[in-house]
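Review this today:
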Amino acid sequence: MTPKELVTAFVEAHNAHDVDKMMSYLSEDSVMIDVASPIPLNSKEDVRKLFNMIFASIDIHFEITGMISEGNKAFAALRTTGDATGIWAGRDITGARCDVFEGMFVETNGEQIKTTMFYSDTATLSKQLGGYPPALNMSAEIEDIM
């Protein structure tokens, strides 16, 4: 698959809330950075845990509003929307709604995604979903989050 096809397939699996299918598109040594994540993402299993948490509490969907690709990399502009249905990061957010724009940058190793970086409006997302604190330390003194 091309990088664009991999991103599209990952997003389709995400929108179907099919975590196993999503994981099949990630290499075993994949790295995911998501500044909005409420948990650290240190492994593929952490990524699985994150998406299981999300889908258990938010009926969330990505809409690809644009995508560019060069070589083994792709960047997708996403509109992320969803209705909360339960507990998120220790807070009952039932009835809340998220609607934010995000970016998804991926680097592939041929047939799978090796690196994924989500760029989110974390301040708005946190407000919309009950004021949870993201887990990633994005302080200015952190030189390389990878």
Q: What stands out?
A: Residues 31 and 43 are 7 Å apart (CA to CA). The longest helix spans residues 44-57. Helices lie at 3-15, 19-24, 44-57, 122-128.
